[in-house]
Design a protein that fits this description.
- The chain is an alpha/beta fold.
- The protein is built from nine helices and ten strands.
- It folds into two domains: 138 residues, 2-Layer Sandwich (Nucleotidyltransferase, domain 5), CATH 3.30.420; 167 residues, Nucleotidyltransferase, domain 5 (2-Layer Sandwich).
- The strands form two sheets. Strands 3-2-1-4-5 form a five-stranded mixed beta sheet, with helices on both faces. Strands 8-7-6-9-10 form a five-stranded mixed beta sheet, with helices on both faces.
Length: 340
């Protein structure tokens, strides 16, 4: 049976809408918010206002690009959380109204689950998807998790950060170096020109599969602060080497735990997801690990790595197939779902 799922993503500062025909993406439109650049981070109130301005034109563009009419939509999937509450309210309110007006099912989606389920998008007939169970390292500005994926909506977090996320460490390091916002992609670009062994930073010693990045952020801050006292142009002279060393350290921390998780579970199908999965260094590290440990790896397309509505729609497709419909009375949640 053919379905057309409209996905809506509004968890942070990107307004996105996508249309999927079963597991195939017909459109995936994203409107970025440039207003936050001068503040060096997302301002929640400005984000929610921008979503209100963007959501109708973005959804209209997604429907037109998919070449379908709104009456063709089988169900509407939306991000319920986690994320910025004001931003989530814009997307969820529109989704409710859209579904109600067309008398079609409403599908609530967990943002972090959707990042993982992006691996089940099949743009090509021979697209390979993971088998259950598999492990997924989900890394973004707000989350760092190792997830044991047993089924589409049966996921267990077996490792997580006890303080800051890896993406936050990238952004904080970029801010210390006075790099443009968002800093993570800038560090990635500079890192390709630098020496990853030029500087050493403190690495956390956390038992088990959990992560910690607060100490690393402090180590970066102190090293740069002390070096600037001796050479005011230290950052400018060493920007590439600093970026390469910071990126190398973060990725090394991420990969050590992922290798341990694979060894403990015996699972050799591994995936990455979330905004930081777009990082070139992490992608290369996964490829090296695949050869070293005989893993089968799954790395999402760049367009499905950062926040996007295609991942919301694919999660919606599996909920629609299982008839797991949401109530018009539901409300968004800002933090991780209690079921996680």
């Amino acid at each position: 049976m053919v379905s057309y799922i409209l996905g809506i993503e509004s968890s942070c500062d990107d307004t996105s809408a996508a249309v999927l025909q079963n597991t195939k993406v017909l459109s995936n439109v994203i409107a970025n918010q440039q207003v936050h650049e001068k503040f060096g981070g997302v301002v929640p109130e400005l984000a929610s206002r921008a979503h209100q301005q963007n959501i109708i034109p973005v959804i209209d563009a997604a429907l037109k690009e998919a070449n379908i009419h709104k009456n063709d939509v089988s169900a509407v999937a939306f991000t319920r959380g986690p994320g910025l509450l004001g931003s989530l309210l814009v997307g969820s309110s529109f989704a409710k109204a859209f579904a109600l007006s067309l008398d079609i099912p409403l599908l609530e989606i967990d943002h972090m689950e959707a990042h993982i389920l992006a691996h089940f998008i099949q743009d090509e007939p021979d697209s390979k998807v993971p088998d259950f169970p598999f492990l997924c390292l989900t890394v973004s500005g707000g989350h760092t998790q190792i997830v044991l994926v047993k089924d589409y909506f049966d996921m267990e977090i077996i490792g997580k950060t006890i303080d800051d996320a890896a993406g936050e460490a990238f952004d904080k390091a970029a801010k210390i170096m006075s790099l443009p916002y968002p800093g993570g992609p800038v560090i990635d670009k500079l890192a390709q020109l630098g020496n990853p062994d030029a500087f050493k930073f403190a690495e956390p010693r956390i038992a088990g599969l959990d992560y910690s990045f607060s100490g690393l952020k402090t180590s970066i801050l102190y090293l740069i602060r002390d070096a600037l006292k001796k050479d005011p142009r230290f950052i400018e002279r060493n920007k590439a080497d600093l970026s390469a060393s910071i990126q190398h350290t973060i990725i090394e921390i991420l990969m050590k735990k992922l290798v341990l998780a694979s060894q403990q579970t015996g699972i050799k199908q591994l995936a990455i997801a979330g905004g930081v999965s777009a990082n070139s260094g992490l992608r290369k590290a996964m490829q090296v690990a695949a050869e070293t440990y005989n893993w089968e790896i799954f790395i999402p397309k760049m367009s499905y790595s950062t926040d996007n509505a295609a991942m919301i729609a694919i999660a919606g497709f599996y909920k629609w197939r299982q008839k797991e419909f949401a109530s018009q009375r539901m409300t968004p949640y800002a933090r991780q779902s209690s079921k996680k």
